[in-house]
Amino acid sequence: MSAQPDHVPVPPASLAPTAAAQVLAQLRASARADSWVPAFEQDWVRALEDSRHSYSLSPLHGVVRAWQARLEATPAVDAFLASGRDDADGVDLADALDGRR
């Protein structure tokens, strides 16, 4: 008897070829553009170099998905910060995104 998983993990949805450009446009239009655009560009350059060495688009897709998640979470984060609640016990985004990949 071989061990078979009782469920098949769902692969992430494929990204449009223009996904990175769309994310960058959203970042440039956001209130956090001064810090987020350079951070995205730095992540993109690093992922591009990884892709060149691995012949895989996975690093690039990972960057786009991480930044899409940040953009999606922005309204909730803004609402939380505006509420005046204590955020000292926050969770690192990398830890939160590990379950989504």
The number of helical elements comes to 4
**Uncertain runs:** none
CA distance, first residue to last residue: 30 Å
Tally the beta strands.
Answer: 0
Mean pLDDT: 86
Class per helix and strand makeup: mainly alpha
Strand content: under 5%
Q: Helicity level, as a percent range?
A: 55-70%
Q: What would you call the quaternary organization?
A: single chain
Please give the largest β-sheet. Answer: none
Task: Outline the secondary-structure elements.
Blueprint: H1 19-29, H2 33-54, H3 58-83, H4 93-98
Record keyword descriptors for this entry.
single chain, 101 residues, mainly alpha, 4 helices, 64% helix, globular
Q: If you had to describe this structure to a student in words, what would you say it looks like?
A:
The protein has 101 residues and is an all-alpha fold. The chain has a domain at 55-82 and 96-101. It has four helices and no strands. α1 packs parallel to α3 (58-83). The longest helix has 26 residues, at 58-83.
Summarize the structure.
By secondary structure, the protein is an all-alpha fold. It has helices spanning 19-29, 33-54, 58-83, 93-98.
